[in-house]
Design a protein that fits this description.
5-stranded mixed sheet; alpha+beta; about 140 residues
């Protein structure tokens, strides 16, 4: 099965396709990024961190499957803008979108977020935060 046929990829694609996410982010990347090398902001980068199968079985021998994605939100601060305000607005857009996802038999859950500004001198206007989004669903054995 090709990765493009992976159910988890389609489920996260539905989330990233929401209009409010497209409106809030100049750039959405489906891979890890180095924020200090980016030029277009606000930026959302999303990638798979890992997966797991639960011992909980569904009907017809299905397995509960969980995929964890890392969501990295990055912005460039303007004059008189604070990191918590700018990142807070962007994180709220994403957490609201995750909370509003309604796909039959699929659960979306946003985790706790952490922020960092490890920029070097003269690069301190770039700030970012990261949090996990878990997608849980039942899948047939051998199908992803």
């Amino acid at each position: 099965m090709a990765l493009t046929d992976a159910a988890f990829s389609g489920y996260i694609g539905q989330l990233l396709g929401k209009a409010e996410i497209a409106a809030a982010f100049e750039v959405v990347r489906r891979r890890q990024v180095n924020v200090l090398r980016e030029e277009e902001f606000p930026l959302l980068a999303v990638w798979v961190e890992g997966d797991a199968e639960s011992d909980d079985a569904g009907s017809d021998g299905e397995l509960q499957y969980e995929v964890e994605y890392a969501f990295l939100v990055a912005a460039r601060l303007g004059d008189d803008e604070s990191q918590d305000e700018v990142l807070g607005r962007l994180i709220k857009v994403l957490r609201d979108a995750v909370g509003a996802m309604a796909v039959a038999d699929v659960e979306y859950q946003a985790g706790r977020w952490d922020t960092d500004n490890g920029a070097a001198e003269n690069e301190g206007d770039r700030v970012w935060a990261e949090f996990a989004v878990r997608v849980r669903y039942y899948r047939p054995r051998g199908d992803y």
